[in-house]
Design goal:
10 helices; globular; alpha/beta
């Protein structure tokens, strides 16, 4: 058994059944993805649209492709025909473009709203006021080709476990609040809470994550050219 298959087997034993594993394959060759695919894995995450498109063209069509990186509006059209979930929606403008491209493809594109929960300014995402402004906007009510399935967030990159826990707990509380009080109907439904990566996925799962995005623990360190 290859390292990739061994790593997947180990992870899947550790991750609860109710938690989906997104294998983050960015910068990795298609051969590595096929090793995971042959083991039975079907959900892969990329952070660059062009790279995801070229892999989609080359690889089996039953793969679910998740866009986990920051999305530029002018790139949405390239992934609109096939993307299974866009994790990083952080503005109404971006949602409007996804709606436009979904309409052209005659498909509903599932999305997660990205919340800014980390202390680092470099990370993208909505704050709480922006989230509610987006969800209550008249424009969203008119969209027919986007479906908001939940929230995504990235914790601060730190060894401080308490800080990471606090950030994940905040996002889980917000997720529960939306699911319980607000948007159980129509175009918004709290089904997915995407939080946790290779360094902090165990904490994320303890805090209520049901989707984790793991790359280096499966494929090894990334190859940045």
């Amino acid at each position: 058994m290859s390292n990739i298959k061994e790593n997947l087997e180990t992870l899947l034993k550790e991750i609860p059944e109710n938690v989906d594993l997104v294998a983050v394959s960015k910068t990795k060759p298609t051969e590595d993805i096929m090793e995971a695919y042959d083991y039975g894995h079907r959900i892969f995450g990329e952070n660059k649209v062009q790279e995801m498109v070229s892999k989609w063209e080359e690889l089996p069509k039953d793969i679910e492709w998740h866009m986990i990186g920051h999305v530029q509006r002018n790139k949405v059209k390239y992934m609109a025909p096939f993307v299974s979930l866009i994790h990083g929606v952080d503005s109404l403008k971006l949602l409007k473009e996804i709606e436009k491209q979904g309409r052209k493809q005659d498909r509903v594109i599932p999305c997660l709203l990205q919340m800014h929960i980390a202390s680092e300014e470099t990370k993208f995402g909505l704050d709480e006021n922006e989230l509610f402004s987006l969800l209550e906007s008249e424009q969203l009510a008119t969209f027919k080709h986007v479906f908001i399935r939940g929230l995504m967030g990235m914790a601060t990159f730190t060894d401080d476990r308490q800080k990471i826990e606090k950030e994940f707990q905040y996002l889980k509380k917000l997720y529960d609040r939306l699911g319980n009080e607000y948007y159980q109907k129509g175009k918004v439904e709290m089904q997915v809470l995407s939080m946790g990566m290779s360094g902090d996925y165990q904490i994320a799962i303890e805090c209520g994550s049901n989707m984790v995005r793991i790359g280096s623990s499966i494929f090894g360190e990334r190859n940045y050219n």
